[in-house]
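Appendix B, example 12.
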Amino acid sequence: MAVLLAAILPALLLTATGAGAAGRAAAEPEPVVTLSQKEAGKGGEVTVRGKGWHPGTLLMMLICGQSTPARGVIGGTNSCANAQGRAVTTDGKGAFTRKMPVTEPPVPCPCVVHVATVTGEQVLADAVFVVAGHPVAALPRETGDGRLAVLAATRLEGDSGLLTWFGAPPSRRLVFTVGNLGSAPVKDPVFRVGTAHGVYAAQWEERQWRGTVEPGRKARIELPVELTAGAHGDYQISLKYGTKVLAEQPWGVGRPWGVTLFWILLCLVVPAAVFRIGMAIVDRARPRPGRAGGRRRPSPRAGVTARFPKPRSAPSAGKAPSPGTTAAALPWFTPDSAPSEHRPTTKGHS
């Protein structure tokens, strides 16, 4: 019985796994894009319909040249008419309908209407479209038999320094491992690193890695990634080799609070300094008290202070004041001119 269970159990697990994968595949259909017309001239209008997308997903619609659904958009969004693109959000069933103007892309056709997700995992779909009157050229040939593929999850390494806190450009290293699945070596491959923020399309920059990846071998690659000064928020870093996007990595960049602190201090210090300077000017310009006609009047403190003698108590009735006492009590009289009680008067006396 145990031997029978050991033989049946792996088969049951494989069946369950296959059923689960089939169920997920059936539950998540591939996104599809259809057009109201396959050809239109510049200035016209085309209705784009889609289904099979995730509900509530923000999508970007572009008319791109030098592209086919099989090879994708060669040259990335640089081959698209970005200024005339349109954004649309899918409904609860993952479908949408939106009109967009027909415009000429910056590169020759063959052209497609390119629909891709703006945030999150990149999902895209293309529909063949002909821009009437626009030049048509052959697609560039694929050279080399080497094919690179990412074998492990990408990651961003590095830390933000003190200068980044004050607005310096944030920088990281995009680290990933690639393997050569082709039959020819790949020497000095040129990758393209894209940086997307919000609803804007990714900005691509070329990064060349010096080295050779032999067929059947793998290599660890590090590419520098740098944002603009003062950048903050949620960014999406994409890695592309040729026309194929190999990996995507989200990057949350913190706000440079040092810049905010600097402006707060500047708003406090500058008004205080202006106020101090203004008060100093006013203090120098205002007239001084005690000046008239350019001459400085003496201060009351510098003049002569009037002094009055302290009052003396009246002499007692039984004691007559002496001449010295009277002179001391009345300093404005001299002893000779002071009236005397013994001096006879002419009135009433012979």
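Residues 32 and 50 are 5 Å apart (CA to CA). The longest strand covers residues 171-180.
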